[in-house]
Amino acid sequence: MALQFNTNLDALTATFNLLKVSSAISTSIQRLSSGLRINSAADDPAGLVIANSLQAQVDGLNQALENNQDSINLVKTASSGMDEINSLLDTIRQKALDAANTGATDPTAAQADQTAIQSAIQSINNIASSTQYGSKKLLDGSAGVTAAVTNSTLIGGINFGGTYGGGVTQAGNVTITVNNAATRAQVSGGTAATYASVNASISTVNGTTTGTGGTVVINGQTVTVSGTDTVQTLIDKINALTGTTGVAANFVSANGSGSITLTNQNYGANFKITESETAALIAGTAGTTVAGLNATVTVQASTLVGGNVTTVVATFTGGRYASDSGLRVTDTNGNSILLTEAGNNTSTSSKAVGAVTANSLQFQIGGGVGQTANIALNSVFASNLGTTSVPGQTLATIDVTTTTGANNALQIVGEAQNQINQYQAQLGGFQDNVLQATNDYLNNSVLNLTASITNITGANIAQEVMNLTTNQLIQQAGASALATAENLPAIYLKLLS
Fold this sequence. Notes:
By secondary structure, the chain is an alpha+beta fold. Helix 1 runs antiparallel to helix 7, helix 2 packs antiparallel against helix 3 (107-130) and helix 2 runs antiparallel to helix 6 (403-457). It starts with 8 loop residues before the first helix and ends with a helix. The longest helix has 56 residues, at 45-100. It is 42% helix and 24% strand. It has three domains: 53-135 and 380-451, CATH 1.20.1330.10; 145-182 and 294-358; 184-291. It is flat, with a radius of gyration of 38 Å. Strand 11 and strand 12 form a beta hairpin. The strands form five sheets. Strands 3, 4, 5, 6, 7, 15, 16, 17, 18 and 19 form a ten-stranded antiparallel beta sheet that branches.
């Protein structure tokens, strides 16, 4: 090996190795301090993807657990209301038995029994109308609402919850009138940058031969063309980024020439086009930001207001939430309708587009699409109990002031009690066999997935301590070697003395 002074290769080698081991030490310290093996995507790209996917599943399952607990609480609330109704039915039965004992009961006592029964019936109706979970009525027959599209030409989807127009959503048709149609954001070249055809060179913009091209920035994405590129090339480059920008370009011909038009693929004010250019290529160089318009729709549907089912007119507005299309119209209660392009027209007037079916609750009990469960909560108003025991009579119509009435009352109350018991049995079975069973397997899934995430991302503490110790020793040796290498030129100089 030749002796050299101007390049100390030994020192460079020692420095390089020292930097490597210092980096390894930093990695070990980071893992030991965080407890994680993967602290950035560079540590294990594939592992990070898998871990994030599993974590998304865990988050979904945890939300499903919360949903299930909310559902259990709702079912318990409904069951509690039915418990009270059962107690009131027991009272009514006792009074009916007392009134039926005509050998020992006089008319005054029977009337007193009837008065007590009427009071109990009123309490049942109060429970039926007031038992609710949050704003959702549970026992008046309106709990749980589903909506279906009946005109897929005009709307692409429909969703109605338990509240509409200030009342409880009821079964019936949904009709719409489009007052204002949604539009897309659009930037039109017009006369700012014209071309003879889509195959013309960029250099021929506005009938010249001096166009040199330039850059166009659309929603933060840059496209560059030269003067020798064609208009079609510029359009193709813009459309290649449509998945990112949401904007498509096309050539519009008029009066022997044409220009490029930019159109956002989504409707509404939430989806804008922000465009600027270094030279006249599309709409000039000033730059612009444009937005679409949101649809507004008048909706007619049935609701329960003041105890009466009535048709209520409400205004639904598109783009109400940040990610909403202008075609997705919603009201203040969260009910929504998705217009199709065909339906997005002011000629859509008083058109029946959907049907609402009440009496069913749907619970999202899992972490994925379609993992739902449904249950119906029947109306427990007195007029809906004991309806098939005595022709034309219900719990609401019983009269124990006569012997026949008292006997009929006993039959009606017996049927009403069986109905409530059946409803409670359904609720109990749903709570235990569906909601609680789902909770059990969700908890197990969360546990197993969390263990998998830990295996992928967690640091092996023993291994990292060993790595740290080893690398620290190597670092100390490397520092000593570097010092020696740096002194070698001075030793070589002694040969000259």
